[in-house]
């Protein structure tokens, strides 16, 4: 599967520096060139999405094409972020992919009930991580037609 180059931004909401660095490594290793923005907690993610608290400009906080969201976050957790996004008319069309260590069936069910587009367990090996990122990239940036930018 060839890497897909996309101008569509990816917002990663991840509080673990290690997990984020491994994700970035995988993207680079697979030659995936999508603009990646990171928020370290749920509050920061909402500030980014609503363009407040230092994220006022579209250059600093472009509308993401996809959100990769960890559930277990400090401050506002991923479940609350997902619920906020999916209840907002301006944000709810953005696909939200849960990217988490939680295999709890309740987390999976609640995430889909709240509008998650996918639920991916963080792979435990580098080989599985590369495979998951390659498939995610191919599907979301190569196959799926994503909503365009909303006029502001």
TrEMBL record:
It comes from Ktedonospora formicarum. The modification 4-aspartylphosphate is found at residue 70. It comes from the Bacteria. Residues 9-137 form the Response regulatory domain. The keyword Phosphoprotein applies. One of its GO terms (biological process) is phosphorelay signal transduction system. SMART domains: REC. The lineage of its organism: Bacteria, Bacillati, Chloroflexota, Ktedonobacteria, Ktedonobacterales. This is Two-component system response regulator. Keywords: Phosphoprotein.
